[in-house]
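Dear colleagues,

As part of the handover before I leave the project, I'm documenting each prediction I ran so the next person doesn't have to rerun anything. This entry is a single chain, and its sequence is reproduced below.
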Amino acid sequence: RTTPLPRCARVMWRFLAGAVLVASNAFAAAPLADVPLIGDTHRPRIAVDIGNHRDVQCILDTGATVGVIGRDLADGAQRIGESHVTTANGAYGMPLLRVRDVVVGGARAGDVEFVQRDASWFGHGGNAPCILGMSFAQHFTIDLDGHARRLRLFAAGTDIDGILDPAQRTGASIKVSFDNEAIETSASFNGT
């Protein structure tokens, strides 16, 4: 048999429980970076520091395993091998590089992999577009808000439902996890 708490203890318990709830909402995860999307809505880019190069405009492509940079951004990168790509026009070997520091806003990722490709491979002169792939994105939980035209990066493992307000959670979301080079996704749209 349990003894009921005195009234003052019940009031104190409710007060403490409310304080914990308020504190947990007040200490929701803060983004490591909150940056604007640059350019049109079909190819939004973000400003990125790659090695010693500042404010490079890059596309964030979460479908790409590694990023792509041109020779102009590869100075200081460590060559770690070669990546082979087969396309409709044939097979190509591209240098596989590791860049020590890649920074978006206040979010820093180390040892990010890129393939080096120049625009001649794409059939035109100049430099290849800069692409950030999952070798960068896997370091973070990502909130890409196309409506607000913002990219927010949180510490890896941050629960996205904990950082979005309820109105944002009713849209579409894709949760991605990595396990020994396997990418697993879970998608939902309007809660289904």
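The longest strand covers residues 90-104. The mean pLDDT is 77.

All the best with the project,
I.
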